[in-house]
Amino acid sequence: MNRANRTERVMAAVVGLLALLTGVGALALHHRQVDRPVLDPVVLDWVRRHPTPVRVGLVVLGLLAVFLGLRWAWRAARPEAHPDLVVDERLVITAKALAAAVRSDAEQVGGVTGAKVWVVGTPALRLRLTLRRGADVRAVWRELDDRVLARARRALGVTSLPAAVRLDLGAEERERVR
């Protein structure tokens, strides 16, 4: 229902885990041998004898990090997809048409003053309803499920249609002082 953030979460977890392991390793090495440098003298000697492969390796790692970071940022910033629904090879319901139909039905629910609807997933709905002040939330919820979402399920020919619903309470009308 929410934007698919699985890749971002996995990448953040991997980067965090690598940073944690590096920090724990450095602390363990420092704690175990206080008078010894973090990098082993044998490694430092090898690096001094082979500067070109080390520099090339570090540049490649840096470029890989930049590429992965840019790809990660691009994926996180790109617009969310609103897929059309293919009922059969001759019938395609556009995401805009389905969203407009559900929005029209949702605006007819008693107590609702405005509705916004998005089609996400395969298929799933995201609804944002603005309620009139003093509206009975349970009655709105019941009518939304029994009438609006049931009609959408029947129209699509599915038994289950996931929907994330956000209810916003309307602002109190201001009284003018005379």
Automatic annotation (TrEMBL):
The chain crosses the membrane at residues 52-74. Keywords: Membrane, Transmembrane, Transmembrane helix. It comes from the Bacteria. This is Alkaline shock response membrane anchor protein AmaP.
